[in-house]
Amino acid sequence: MTKLYFYLVRVNQRAQSSYRRMTV
């Protein structure tokens, strides 16, 4: 489960960065 959590966190960070770029 730790691996899944780490993967989700990484994906979430990538999605947030992309969303922020789009907003800006």
Question: Which labels suit this protein?
Answer:
24 residues, 1 helix, mainly alpha
N-to-C SSE string, H for helix and E for strand: H
Report the count of strand segments.
Answer: 0
Strand content: under 5%
The geometry reads as rod-shaped
Report how far the terminal alpha carbons are from each other.
Answer: 34 Å
Residues in helix, %? over 70%
- Major sheet summary line: none
Mean pLDDT over the full residue set: 87
What is the number of helices? 1
Uncertain stretches: none
Structural class: mainly alpha
Q: Provide the gyration radius in Å.
A: 11 Å
Task: Summarize this entry quickly.
The chain has 24 residues and is mainly alpha-helical. The protein has one helix spanning 2-23.
Structural write-up:
The chain is an all-alpha fold and 24 residues long. The protein contains 1 helix and no strands. The longest helix is centred in the middle third of the chain and has 22 residues. The mean pLDDT is 87. It is rod-shaped. Helix content is 92%, strand content 0%.
Layout of helices and strands:
Blueprint lengths: L1 H22 L1
